[in-house]
Amino acid sequence: PTRPETAVRLRCPCGPVTAFVPWDGHRSGNPVRFHSVPAFAAATDLAIDVPGHGKVVVDIGYGGTFYAFLSAEQLGLDVCSSKTRDLVSAASAVTEAVKKQFKLHHPESEDLAFLYGTILTDGKDAFSEEPTTNICVFADEQVDRSPTGSGVTARIALQYHKGLIQLDQSRTFQSSTTGSLFTGKAEAKFGNYNAVIVEVSGEAFYTGTATFTVEEEDPLKHGFFLK
Q: How does it associate, per the subunit comment (predicted)?
């Protein structure tokens, strides 16, 4: 570790991500921040027919994985006051509808071309000093306790694509479930797709450690494939 900040490079399914952890010579601190993989808008103002809700308009952004974004208001809900179960059910319906009606494409790896979930927002996408609130419903109807690192990254990329924020303009994002906060900003343009590198910052705490070992006689030590 180095002072005042230590870089920690992580190999993620989406590619290498570098985190930066404050270090005072004795212990780590907060806030922790990371630089995303290239993030971009995959689709904007996409009309989707959602069973039980009718037609809605969604944006799709990539921030390490793909998410659909729309205001909870389009589904007759309020991201801050509606029951979490109702938000989860509605977001899951959007995810399934988008999967059936829109084909995703990733410019470098088709293995990444899948919709991970839907993020419902308060609709406050234009730049403001006030936090904007969202809830991320991903995978098997799981709810993130945070505003979501890859979700904030994708949302920043969409806002930048739409001209709602500028480079190095920080926004604050709040989880509607726990109230936790992240900040995010587009740091630099990157390549095609009007992609940007996004810096996301928030609090981080130790939750555990793990040690893995490999024994030479283990016949599956290098992994295996399923037919």
A: Homodimer.
User: 143 near 177, Cβ under 8 Å?
Assistant: yes
Count: domains in the chain: 1
From residue 90, how far is each of 68, 79, 138 by CA, in Å?
Answer: 12, 11, 12
Q: What is the CA radius of gyration of the chain?
A: 19
pLDDT score of 193: 67
* 208-to-29, 81, 205, 211 alpha-carbon distances in Å: 16, 33, 9, 11
Any idea which residue has 């293995």 for tokens?
Answer: 111
Domain residue limits at 147? 37-183
Give first-to-last CA distance, the chain, whole Å. 43
Instruction: Answer yes or no: is 22 within a domain.
Output: no
Angle at 70 between CA 160 and CA 38, to 5 degrees: 35
Determine the average pLDDT of the residues in 57-73. 98
- State the pLDDT at residue 191: 73
- Does residue 164 belong to any structural domain of this protein? yes
Q: What is the mean pLDDT of residues 185-195?
A: 84
Asked if 153 and 194 touch (Cβ cutoff 8 Å), the reply is: no
